[in-house]
UniProtKB/TrEMBL annotation:
<dbReference type="InterPro" id="IPR035963">
    <property type="entry name" value="FERM_2"/>
</dbReference>
<feature type="binding site">
    <location>
        <begin position="894"/>
        <end position="902"/>
    </location>
    <ligand>
        <name>ATP</name>
    </ligand>
</feature>
<feature type="active site" description="Proton acceptor">
    <location>
        <position position="1016"/>
    </location>
</feature>
<dbReference type="InterPro" id="IPR019748">
    <property type="entry name" value="FERM_central"/>
</dbReference>
<dbReference type="GO" id="GO:0005856">
    <property type="term" value="C:cytoskeleton"/>
</dbReference>
<dbReference type="InterPro" id="IPR016251">
    <property type="entry name" value="Tyr_kinase_non-rcpt_Jak/Tyk2"/>
</dbReference>
<dbReference type="GO" id="GO:0030154">
    <property type="term" value="P:cell differentiation"/>
</dbReference>
<feature type="domain" description="SH2">
    <location>
        <begin position="452"/>
        <end position="553"/>
    </location>
</feature>
<dbReference type="GO" id="GO:0005524">
    <property type="term" value="F:ATP binding"/>
</dbReference>
<dbReference type="GO" id="GO:0016020">
    <property type="term" value="C:membrane"/>
</dbReference>
<dbReference type="InterPro" id="IPR020635">
    <property type="entry name" value="Tyr_kinase_cat_dom"/>
</dbReference>
<keyword id="KW-0547">Nucleotide-binding</keyword>
<dbReference type="InterPro" id="IPR020776">
    <property type="entry name" value="Tyr_kinase_non-rcpt_Jak1"/>
</dbReference>
<keyword id="KW-0677">Repeat</keyword>
<keyword id="KW-0808">Transferase</keyword>
<keyword id="KW-0472">Membrane</keyword>
<keyword id="KW-0597">Phosphoprotein</keyword>
Length: 1174
């Protein structure tokens, strides 16, 4: 060893000893007063606050300004307390006093690996920008703007340098001695980059920087301590090798390649990502962790989910701290993951038998598995999150499919920190204008939501949005400035005088403590809303253009802009195109595989049946044989009469086949049966929600109602994310699969059914009839149907749920409903303020101002926790004569005529098969306006009649907004006399027959007293209620007499019952009260003959006149009657009874017997018969 070498060694040791002494006697740090915010850039002095109240968000804005960080990157940063290891949410309030002694650091918290795009094999991270093509290549290349601005990059560099040196970003664990050696070399390489950057940044010669700065200042303290423990020769060798490498790097690499400070920062940060452990991620060790779904704990293998009790038991058995069992990891590029904490892995001893290549392969494999392996289970990425809930120290992350992660943390501060982390990443990746949890939401984001202001989006996105909104003059966007923190920009569409050239003008609003001022003017107001209200009433001028602010375009859910960060390739996150969504592809079900069963009710132009579907058993099919299982389904049948709207029907089916959500009914497929189109859907046994709620004897709990509302909002949020529109959200389209009334079975479980026929093919009357569920803009123009319409429908449905299934506006006529929307009225809202505000926001008449469904889900969760008391809505009087078509369940057909048909239905509004049986008369679909008017007249007549021998009117049922009406009458189960008498001839005496005749006369006398003529009295239209009791029915041909002349003239008699008509009806088409007397005589003849078809009036008259067709039949019949020929006396008919018939058949109306006289005569005959029978 030479003397010079020994001397040099001694000199270095002396210098080292002097430095250590200086360090030992250096002054202690001064105590902190109030609150201090420190920075990692050496040149920036810390901020001091002695007293006052500030939110973390306000402090971060001041810090960002001091560090020249733009508003675009401001939300990447947060405040951190080094001493407690606590991150503060933006909403955290600091109440500062002089003795508070709070020392914070301003740090970038939200970090995305490979944001620089230099790491091979990983997706680059960038901000969204408008799509562009590079060159002429037909293949699109993902292209975006950089994540960080200059100020953010500068700050991140110094922050990471600090973390690297202090060990806050720990080095990755080495798996071998060889890898440990490589890690040390990489750390020295980091020191080279740092010293080089320092020299270039301060324009210091590299030789001087090399002499003045030791590499030990720029490597991790742990490595520095490790090197100190090595012998002095090794330390000197490391120092000399480092100096040599630093010189070569600066002379060759930096000098020849023109490396800049920017390049050095990027290289430093990129190298640090691979060198440290989980850079940009945060690890939490909760007290307990549970992954659950629908109130049921999931089960798994080794990495099973633990609830609190399980974990405590486990800790007692294993003597572990509660937090040492489970871990949760949050990263910007992956999302939220969890695992059971692994045991410590010892460093592998050096294995000399391994070749160098095998060691390199092993290292690469270890690096690849570092993040994806290690037992981490992905719970969700940020796109899947709907909202978060925090209760004391417990945090719940809700997923779109209602799966949730619930973790209890050690403190409330840690819980808020965790929620703020998830919330911040969500706004950076998914939706820049939505917050998951109000407790941690930045006040500016809440304010922007209320005012409709965007974050700092760039001009290109603002202009693109205005184009998408139609470029209407005066349409504008509010957005915060990308460069200045205290300016809001109004970007507005301006049309030049020729209306062909469109310009976009920007105006600035200055924001200060006094309020909001239009920059460059004296116009100011205390709030942004007041300023905009003022400006919208003014005529604004700029560059020889004048215009008015007309319509603001607020942010929309998941709106793409430069505020969002893309963490995956565009192909993997893109939504289906509009063409793909509209492409109709169905699973076609053979008609042989479905069996139609009970009629469940009527939808819009559809009939709904319970059915059975045969489904192949896939397991058996795989085994080589075929078997089937039967599944209960709902069949929605579009009849052949509505073939013109089958395309719209299939549009609904197409929408339903694109969804897969537990709270939306499953579409099995579509079946075409003859000329009917059928949707085959999942069956929910408890039926529609509104029916179930009204069926309950006591009101359902508020918690039950909110659970149902949350499930509905969850399903609609899913549709909103998929850019699908339901179109008819209402309580009757929500089906209940589980009632949730029994605590053991869990909470209620709903399924949103299909919307039925789209409103685009409905008439205006049908659309108005759907008020208040249909959105106002859709009444004006059904093609305006959008997700915003579902939000309106949700608001109305929430009203229904809260008010126990009450039907809003049920007593209003169509014109009144129209006026309700025209005047922009609101439904009566609950007393509970927050719930009322939510309903009002959903039912905002401006579609753009309705809240996102994610926000609705979040707010409902908060409301549920408060468990508000909802004061019952005053019960509206129910009109018993109005029957809802959907509750008419067809049993069978009772009869059919030329124009209409009568069906037996059960009216079952409770949905429990206890409803009353009614007869429903309706017109056939092909009938026109004249027949509809006739049915309306029949309804009006029947409404005016009330007599024990006249069929009772019960009410009407309307469809298609009142265009289609059905008549509801009482059902008489024994049918008409024409059917009854032949069947019960042996049990029916002459006295009973005479009793029937008397009852008919009483009913007809009452009818005449009301100035009506029946015109279709026959045995087929007399119904039997019970043995000995009959009622007159079918008033389809009934007319009202004119008071001045006592008869009614018919213009068209193509379908008249001519063989029951009096001569004056056949010859003059005039009908008198006496004309009904003639018809009664014929009816009496039918009754006395027991309605024997061989002796029917038509058969007897045809025998008299011979066979003829059309008008010739009437001509011959008239001739026969004028000749005095009448129906012959039936066999076994008493002479006096036949004489009464003949009195009814006098040729001139004036000479015919009256119904009053008939009642008297028939009563005498009945008494005489009874006396003789005795």
């Amino acid at each position: 060893m030479t003397a010079s070498f020994v001397m040099e060694l001694s000199r270095q040791l002396c210098m080292k000893m002097r430095k250590n002494k200086k360090t030992q006697f250096s002054s202690l740090p001064a105590s902190t007063l109030g609150l201090e915010i420190h920075f990692y850039i050496p040149e920036i002095r810390h901020l001091e606050y002695i007293k006052g109240t500030y939110t973390a968000e306000e402090l971060c804005v001041t810090a960002a300004k001091k560090c020249t960080i733009s508003p675009l990157c401001h939300n990447l940063f947060a405040l951190y307390n080094d001493s407690t290891g606590t991150w503060y949410s933006p909403s955290h309030e600091f109440n500062i006093k002089e003795d508070s002694g709070i020392k914070l650091h301003y740090r970038m918290r939200f970090y995305f690996k490979n944001w620089h795009g230099t790491t091979e094999g990983e997706s680059p991270v960038w901000r969204h920008c408008l799509n562009k093509l590079r060159g002429q290549s037909p293949q699109k290349t993902p292209e975006g703007t950089p994540l960080l601005d200059v100020g953010s990059l500068e700050y991140l560099y110094f922050q990471c340098q600090h973390d690297f040196q202090t060990g806050k970003a720990p080095l990755r664990a080495a798996q071998s001695e060889a890898e440990q050696h490589e890690i040390e070399n990489e750390c020295l390489g980091m020191a080279v980059l740092a010293i080089t950057h320092y020299a270039k940044n301060f324009d210091i010669p590299f030789s001087a920087a090399s002499r003045e700065m030791s590499y030990k200042r720029f490597i991790p303290e742990s490595l520095n301590s490790n090197i100190k423990q090595r012998n002095i020769l090794t330390r000197i060798r490391i120092s000399n090798v480092f100096k040599k490498f630093l010189a070569e790097f600066n002379t060759q690499t930096v000098g020849e390649s023109n490396i800049t400070c920017y390049d050095l920062k990027i290289k430093y940060l990129a190298t640090m990502e691979g060198l440290t452990s989980r850079m940009g991620s945060e690890l939490f060790e909760p007290v307990s962790l549970a992954i659950t779904q629908e109130k049921e704990l999931s089960t798994g293998g080794y990495y099973g989910y633990c609830n609190q009790s399980q974990l405590q038991t486990k800790c007692q058995n294993q003597n572990l701290e509660p937090s040492s069992d489970m871990q949760v990891l949050v990263t910007g590029t992956t999302g939220i993951s969890w695992r059971q904490k692994p045991a410590a892995v010892p460093v592998m001893p050096k294995d000399k038998s391994k070749s160098k290549k095998s060691k390199q392969d092993e290292k690469q494999k270890n690096n690849r598995n570092k993040e994806t392996g290690d037992g981490w289970v992905l719970f969700c990425d940020f796109h899947m999150i709907t909202h978060t809930v925090i209760k004391e120290t417990t945090v719940t992350i809700m997923r779109q499919d209602n799966k949730k992660m619930e973790l209890q943390l050690l403190s409330r501060a840690e819980a808020l920190s965790f929620v703020a982390l998830v919330d911040g990443y969500f706004r950076l990746i998914v939706d820049a204008h939505h917050y998951l949890c109000k407790e941690v939401a930045p006040s500016l984001v809440v304010q922007n939501t209320e005012t409709g202001c965007h974050g700092p989006i760039c001009t290109e996105y603002a202009v693109q949005k205005l184009r998408q909104e139609g470029n209407e003059e005066g349409t504008y966007i509010l957005r915060w400035s990308c460069t200045e923190y205290n300016f809001i920009i109004i970007t507005v569409v301006c049309h030049e005088s020729d209306h062909f050239n469109i310009q976009y003008k920007n105006f600035q609003i200055e924001v200060d403590s006094d309020g909001y001022r239009l920059y460059g003017t004296d116009t100011s107001r205390p709030s942004l809303k007041e300023l905009l209200d003022h400006l919208e009433r003014q005529c604004l001028h700029t560059d020889n253009l004048q215009f008015q602010l007309r319509r603001c375009c607020p942010p929309q859910p998941r709106e793409i802009s430069n505020l969002l960060v893309v963490t995956k390739e565009r192909a993997s996150i893109c939504q289906p195109t509009k063409h793909e969504r509209e492409l109709c592809i169905f699973h076609r079900i053979p008609k042989e595989d479905i069996e139609q069963e009970e009629h469940l009710g009527v939808g819009t132009k559809t009939n709904i049946y319970l059915g059975t579907l045969r489904v192949k058993n896939e397991e058996d099919e795989d085994a080589g044989y075929t078997s089937f299982q039967e599944v209960k389904v709902v069949l929605k049948v579009l009849g052949s009469g509505h073939r013109d709207i089958s395309l719209a029907f299939f549009e609904t089916a197409n929408m339903m086949r694109q969804v897969s959500h537990k709270h939306i009914v499953l579409l099995y497929g579509v079946c075409v049966r003859h000329q009917e189109n059928i949707m085959v859907e999942e069956y929910a046994q408890l039926g529609p929600l509104d029916v179930f709620i009204r069926r309950q004897q006591s009101p359902l709990s508020t918690r039950w109602k909110f659970q149902v509302a949350k499930q509905l909002a969850s399903a609609l949020s899913y549709l909103e994310d998929k850019k699908l529109v339901h179109g008819f959200v209402c309580a009757k389209n929500i089906l209940l699969a589980r009632d949730g009334l029994d605590e053991e079975e869990g909470e209620p479980f709903i399924k949103l059914s299909d919307p039925g026929i789209p409103i685009t093919v409905l008439s205006r009357e049908e659309c108005v009839h759907r008020i208040p569920w249909i959105a106002p803009e859709c009444v004006k123009n059904p093609s305006e149907l959008s997700v915003a319409a579902d939000k309106w429908g949700f608001g109305t449905t929430l009203w229904e749920i809260c008010y126990d299934g009450e039907v809003p506006l049920k007593e209003k006529k169509l014109t009144e409903k129209e006026r309700f929307y025209e005047a922009e009225f609101q439904l009566a809202i609950p007393d509970y303020k927050e719930l009322a505000e939510l309903m009002t926001r959903c039912m905002n008449y401006d579609p753009k101002k309705r809240p996102f469904f994610r926000a609705i889900v979040r707010d409902l969760d908060v409301l549920e926790e408060k468990s508000p008391f909802i004061k019952p809505c005053p019960i509206q009087p129910v009109d018993p004569t109005v029957f809802e078509t959907r509750f008419l369940r067809k049993i069978r057909e009772l009869g059919e005529g030329h124009f209409g048909k009568v069906e037996l239905c059960r009216y079952d509004p409770r949905g429990d098969r206890t409803g009353e049986m009614v007869a429903v008369k309706s017109l056939k679909p092909e009938n026109g306006e004249e027949q509809s008017n006739n049915l309306l007249k029949e309804i009006e007549i029947l409404k005016a009649l009330y007599h024990e021998n006249i069929v009772k009117y019960k009410g009407i049922s309307q469809e298609e907004g009142g265009k289609t009406i059905k008549l509801i009458m009482e059902y008489l189960p024994l049918g008409s006399l024409k059917e009854y008498l032949p069947r019960y001839k042996s049990q029916t005496s002459l006295g009973t027959l005479l009793s029937y005749c008397i009852q008919i006369c009483r009913g007809m006398d009452y009818l005449g007293s009301r100035n009506y003529i029946h015109r279709d009295l026959a045995a087929r239209n007399v119904l039997v209620e019970k043995e000995g009791m009959v009622k007159i029915g079918d008033f389809g041909l009934t007319k009202s007499l004119k008071e001045n002349n006592g008869y009614y003239t018919v213009k068209d008699e193509n379908d008249s019952p001519v063989f029951w008509y009096a001569p004056e009806c056949l010859t003059q088409c005039k009908f008198y009260l006496a004309s009904d007397v003639w018809s009664f005589g014929v009816t009496m003849y039918e009754i006395i003959t027991y309605c024997d078809s061989s002796k029917s009036p038509m058969t007897c008259f045809l025998d008299m006149i011979g066979r003829a067709q059309g008008q010739m039949t009437i001509v011959r019949l008239v001739n026969v009657l004028q000749d005095g020929r009448r129906l012959a006396c039936p066999e076994s008919c008493p002479r006096r009874v036949y004489e009464l018939m003949r009195k009814c058949w006098e040729h001139t109306p004036e000479r015919r017997i009256t119904f009053k006289r008939l009642i008297e005569e028939l009563s005498i005959l009945q008494q005489h018969h009874q006396q003789n029978s005795l």
